[in-house]
Amino acid sequence: MITLFWISVFTVGYVYFGYPLVLYILNKVLPERKVQQGEIFPEVTLIISVYNEAATIEEKLKNALSLDYPKEKLEILVVSDASTDGSDDIIRGYQDQGIKLLRQEERAGKTLGLNHAVQKATGEIIVFSDANAMYEPDAVRKLVRNFNDPKVGYVTGESRYLTSEESSVSVLENLYWTYEIAIKKMESRLGSMVGADGAIYAIRNTLYSPLKSTDINDFVNPLQIIFKKYRGIYEPEAVCYEETASSFRGEFRRRVRIVSRSWRGLFRVQALLNPFRFGTFSLALISHKLLRWLVPVMMTTAFVSNIFLFEAGRIYQVLFGFQVLFVLMTLVGGCFTFMGWQNKIFQAPYYFTLSNVASLIGIYRGIRGTSQVTWEPERARASQTGLSGLKISKIGIFIFLACFFFFGLALKRFPSLAEITLWGASGVIVAVYVGYPFFLVLLSFPFRKKVLKETYCPTVSLLIAAYNEDQVIEEKIKNALALDYPKEKLKIVIGSDGSTDRTNEIIRKYEKEGVSWYAYSPRRGKVSVLNRTMPEIQTEVTVLSDANTMYDPIAIKKLVRNFADPAVGAVSGDVILQNDYIYYGKSEGTYYRYERFIQEKETELGSMVGVDGAMYAIRTELFKPPSDNIILDDFVISMNVAKQGYRIVYEPEALAYESGSTTTTDEFKRKVRVIAGAVQALKQGEGLPHFMEQPGLSLKYVFHKLFRWFIPVQLILLFMANLALLGTPIYQVFFLGQVIFYALAVVGLFTNIEAKGVFALPYYFCLVNLAALLGIIRGLADLQPVTWEKLERT
Asked: What was the pLDDT predicted at 371?
């Protein structure tokens, strides 16, 4: 175990500190292998790879045409991987200036596109570039001058990263890239650098070997050139500029893609790992790439072995303390990132950890042969933050479960850690369910903000989203037509999301009574219905409703009267569940009364967090469309209103009635979907308040939503910590209390007797939190579809 620990520690240290030090010493000891540069002007082909780059391609083409290189010796080829956004039309507009378009009619990936482009290229030297990489005028000349040396096979220029804002990810990426450049320079002086930069590198045409679709061209092609006994060197004066990833999510996706394809490519030229044949280049390849990709494995090994060595000496306790501190800083950095805060001290370890997790997933995908061959520009996703689009596969879930397992071992070994965990988890649970409501009550007396409610009668659209609702849609339409609101000011609008039953036929019957409707096909989900229908609504206020929710006649009057207050942007009503026929119905009713109380107190303190999707109203002009893949649409839409500085308020006199789920299974599925949607919105950074500008709303979000969504994790930690502390009587009593509570829940699950009151509350609590746990996993793994499953109606 000691050997395993120190091998892991020294490997990590060598990769990041030892290897640069070795390079520095070798650069001092060994003579520099200079390059015989010369002002030469061979035929050059500039190949630009494009997929859906309409936002940047015209600027790139103008940049290419302005290069300071003889025009008659510069060929510009643009290879488009079946772009669909108009990029190709822009490129065709420059054909009369000598730019050639090579279009792949079906997406096949960048590498196969380059194979095709190189075959068509006439230049003696090929320069590869990305669509967003803007070259200095003399960049091509500075690259080409190195080919005066007959031993040079490829040349990499220097990418300098720009960003429109000083975000932590851009600062950290620039810092990392400065470190990388220093290594490349030292490798180049010794003979050859490892790999190239796809944004700006050049090769001799004759040295290009066709690549597999899974190969990453700027890594595998340079390795093939080195294998042919040519050099790969770094040219710092050949400069291009491109933007850094706009988010940690974007950087994560890029690294997973690069490592997965590089891992497979490395073993296609594995002879280069033999130092007896390739000398210092093998050392560079092993140290700079192979061992760095394996760093997350080494870090995990070091942490686990350190747990077992904790009692072996003070040094192991100190090193374990440093590792725990690093993990905590990583978690804080991750929270800061999700919340939109910038803090380099905490986000640096988060960035480091994220990069290494990406390497681990990349290796796993590379071994499995699931490398991604197509790409999507991160610039197209720049509006999103967090880790959207990341699919955490089976390995991610395995890592999640492994963390609990190893943490359980640590709890058993270190009673003090178990005590901290137990009381910490207990504190979070109590703070969420008891402390937060108490805090709201306490503050509502001195800081109460009233809502100006007056008789107010704006134009209103009642928007109903429906999918296969032929059981209830007619009742809903009749309910809407019977509302006590001026008919000339109320429009009824229905969006049918690819319904395949009689829903559309029933709606059509009511067109003559003023019901407007839109039949969308194919089915894309509720949020898509709202996004496509809202632009058609011209009224001052929009009330959003579910098809099975029946409104009290004066419900809309009660909702809209709150808009007499200009500070109010959204209003949520009181939807009463008719679920007395379900044995846990009273427990669910108690929970909803508890929720309404919190919403009322939050309103008194300015704004509540979220709304009830079955009945809420917004000022139409404040609608900001969520992403089309958002699941928890009502939460994101309402929070987008709050982010614009308006209040979300609760109106207890606006009543509606809705039948609850008819079975436990349906209720379980509904709650899983809600939490999965919450986690998805968190990952994508949608619905998050501005934490620096809206501290009050942000605290409500954290305690009312964020912490509550993750209560099942706290319950697991609480149980595990308590299990590790059974040697103490007080903890034995505490553990017994948990066991009894869960036993009552199990009895509530299986009993069929009528007197279930004592079992119903534990059962409902466990049902909600088990669903939340599954929702967390589904949300993290992107397993929850945006379309919804219609539950059985009563």
From this structure: 60
